[in-house]
Structure formats: structure tokens, C-alpha cells
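Each record in this resource describes a single protein on a pair of labelled lines. With that in mind, the following record should read easily:

===
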Amino acid sequence: MNAIVVTGAHGQLGRRVVALAAERGDGDEVAAYSSADLDITDADAVAAAVSAGATVINCAAYTAVDAAETDESRAMAINADGPRNLARACGRVGARLIHVSTDYVFDGTATTPYEVDATPAPRSAYGRTKLAGENAVREELPEAVVVRTAWVYDNTGKNFVTTMRRLEGERETLSVVNDQVGSPTFAVDLASGLLEIHADPTLSGRTLHYTNAGQASWFELARAVFTHIGADAARVLPCSSAEYAVPAPRPAYSVLSPSAWIDAGLTPARPWSAALSAALARST
């Protein structure tokens, strides 16, 4: 039996990791910590929560991308200092760490999928803090696994897909940006990928990318949501990022290459359209 410590356990991804670990019944003892249960910026609290031989899956993060532009110190504490504390605690007791990062560490100017060794160049406060977290983890625990992902959604809670479902019932038409491209990623699939890493103790000291396969714009994703729920996709209209101004710049191109993931012998992710269909068919 292996212990799994999940931080950010009440968040979109953390909830799925905890639930999936329980569903699989592999005998793993799961310790689920929400931000209220465990403040990862508190080094002493983190040290007390991490036990020898455990796998820590760090889903805790400051994810308010626009708010981070004026709250970068708080974002840095959660996204960089917290992961450093986790990595240090793991190193002291011989625990593993799987740390979740983001496409926002890149500038979004590429035209082909980002490989894991592409040069980071974040354009937002959120991206800077997440890159600082990656670097802190690698410095403290070189054997940690860093998993970058992008465009994560679930069929519950507050995210792009659930927002599109809600707006379909509230508006005759809606405009969605069509000049930002990425790979929509179902939280259940990402959670499964993280647990697959946990199940293979030989995986260490790697940076990996995990998203559902393929790419789409936000506009295309919104239309796909409408189509899947039986609504008229023509009600979704395209607009440019310039027409939808937000405080933090978004990467125009966020597609992450799966090459390192596949080369590690891990299960390739299914296409984003298939994952979206499965998400929208789920009741929970």
C-alpha cells in the first residue's frame, strides 16, 4: 500500500485525483488536503503532512490569472514558495513529488506544439509564478516529476465548459475568442495520468506534458459544447482577443507536445473531442 497526499484536494483537479484514486481501489491510502486543511506556504505544516514513502500530488495553485496581475506576491507564495516547501519536505523523508504546472510558462508565440525543453518565457504574473514554482521544485528535489497541462475543465464547478452550458440557456448568441488555440483537457483524464505516474516508481526527474490530444480555439470548443448538448452551434460567434480585453495576456498558442509523455511509456491521451463528449455525458 502506498500513501498519496493530494494538495488542493477541493479544487477542480484535486477532487478528481482523490475520487479516482478511491474508485480504483488499488489500496493506496489517500490523504486529501484542501487549502483550508493545509497551507502549503507554511513550511512546518507541510513537513508534518508529508510522510516517508508517500507520493505527493500537488494540485494546489493560485489560478486567478487576471487577479495575479495585481496580486503577484500572493500568487508567488502559493505557486512558488508552496511547491518549494513540498519539494523540501519530500526530499527530507524520501517521498515522491508530482507537481502540476501550466502552458502559461510559455509566451504563446510558437506555431508547433511546445516540447518539454522549449524555452519558457511567461508573459503574465500567473505564468511567472508557475515557472518559479517549477524551478523551485527542481532545485529542491531534482527527482520530482513536473507535469504541465492546459485548458483544464470539468463537467461540474466553474470552468469554461460549464460556463458555456450555462450561457447557452441564458443568451441567444455569445461571442468567443477564435485567435487563441490550445488543447482542452478533461480533469478526469489528467487525474488518471497523474495517478499513472504515481503507479510507476521508476519515473523521476522528468518534465512531462499532458493534455487531451488535438487542438482547438476557444470558439471551436464553445461550438463543440453547444453541439454536444443539442444546441445550435451557430449561436456561438467568433471574436478576437482584442475585442475581449482582460488584464492578463493569454498565450495565443498553447498546444503542448505529448512526445515526452509517450516516450516515458505512459498512456497517450484520447482526443479532446472524445473527452469532451465523455465529460458532458457524465452526471457527476
